Amino acid sequence: MANHTDLLELDCHITKDGQVVVSHDGNLLRQTGHNVNICDLRYEELPRYKESLEVTFFPGHKSSGSDRRMPLLEEVFQRYPQKPINVEVKADDDKLIKRISELVKKYHRTDRTIWACTTDSVMKKCRKENPDMPVMFTPRRGILLLLLYYSGLLPFVPLSESVVETYMPSIINRTYFPHNSLMRNRFLVYLQDKLMMRKSLFEHLEARGIQVYLWVLNQDSDYQRAYDCGATGIMTDYPSKLHAFLRRHDGVQRARGAEPQEAAAEEEQQRCQY
Q1: Which end of the chain is more exposed for a tag (fewer CB within 10 A), N or C?
Q2: Under the phi-then-psi rule, with left for phi > 0, alpha for psi from -120 to 50, and beta for the rest, what region is 42?
Q3: Percentage of the chain surpassing pLDDT 70?
Q4: What is the per-residue pLDDT for 155?
Q5: 260 phi and psi, to 5 degrees?
Q6: Residue 262's pLDDT is what?
Q7: How is the chain classified by DSSP, letter by letter?
Q8: pLDDT at 252
Q9: Residue 258: its pLDDT value, please?
Q10: DSSP assignment of 161-207, as one string?
C-alpha cells in the first residue's frame, strides 16, 4: 500500500469452521510444508507459512516475511475499507461463495470488490449470490471476446463483465511455466501473444469501461510491454519495483515537454491509465 497499489488481488478458501482465508492453494504442502487441506481444518489449526517461499512467477527468487500467519479476508476488508479488491474463488464451494458475499455486504464494498474465478459454473453461482458485484471474464468468455473482436462484431455485442484478467503470453516458458504441456508449446505461445496483445482491443475495452489487468509481471521489460499495449493495470509480486518503474516512466514523459502537443497529450492519457 505504501507503493500506491491501486487494487489487491486475493485468492480465497474456506476453513472447516466457515472462516474465509486468503490463500492461493487449497492444500498447504507447498506453502507450509504440511500436507493438509484448508477445508479440513479450523482456522486456529492452520499451519504458518514457511519462512521462505519461491516466488511462483519469478523462479529462483525467494520471498519472506516476519508475519507468517494466514490472514482472514475479513481482516483485509477491515484494514483497507476503500481499496478495490479482486477476490478469486478458488474452490467450487457454495459456503465459500455465500460467505464472501456476506462479508462484501457487511463492509459495504459491493461496488469495489470483483468476483473472479476460472470456471463458468462457479462464476454463475457467484453472480447469482451477489449480482451487483463486478465480474471478470472467465477463460471461456475470454475466448469468445477474441472471436468477437476478430470477426468485427465486438462493438455490437453487449458485455456484462467489468474486468479482463489474463497472463501476458510472452512470460510463458520464461517466468511462468503452466502445468499443461500444451500451454508451453512455443508455437501456441507465439499465436496467443499475437492474438491477445492487441492495443486496439485494449483501447476498445477501456472505452467501454472494461479494465484489462495482466499477470504476473515482475520485470521492467514486461512492465514496459504491458504499458505500451495499453493495459489498465499490472499484477506483480513486487509492488515496490513496479512503482519505481512507473515513477521513472513518468519522469521520462515529463522530460519530453518540447514534443508536439498532440503526442504529449496522448502519452499523458496512457500514463494516467495507471
Answers
A1: N
A2: beta
A3: 92
A4: 98
A5: -55, 145
A6: 42
A7: -TT----EEEEEEE-TTS-EEE-S-SB-HHHHS---BGGGS-GGGPPPPPSEEE-TTSTT-EEE-S--SPPBHHHHHHH-TTS-EEEEE-S--HHHHHHHHHHHHHTT-GGGEEEE-S-HHHHHHHHHH-TTS-BBPPHHHHHHHHHHHHHT-GGGS-----EEEEE-GGGBTTTB--SSGGGG-HHHHHHHHHHH--HHHHHHHHHTT-EEEEE---SHHHHHHHHHHT-SEE--S-HHHHHHHHHHHHHHHHHTTTS-HHHHHHHHHHHHT-
A8: 65
A9: 42
A10: --EEEEE-GGGBTTTB--SSGGGG-HHHHHHHHHHH--HHHHHHHHH
Cell numbers linked to 235: 499484477
pLDDT at position 256 is 54
What confidence score (pLDDT) does residue 3 get?
87
94: Cα separation from own chain's centroid: 22
Q: Which residue has the cell 485468492?
A: 11
At which residue does the C-alpha cell 477445508 appear?
39
* Per-residue pLDDT tens digits for 242-259: 999 999 988 765 555 544
Contact criterion met (CB below 8 Å) for 21 and 73: yes
Average pLDDT of every residue of the chain: 92
d(CA 38, CA 262): 54
Average pLDDT value for residue range 25-35: 97
Say which amino acid occupies 140: R
pLDDT at 36 over 90: yes
Check if the beta carbon of residue 116 is closer than 8 Å to that of residue 91. no
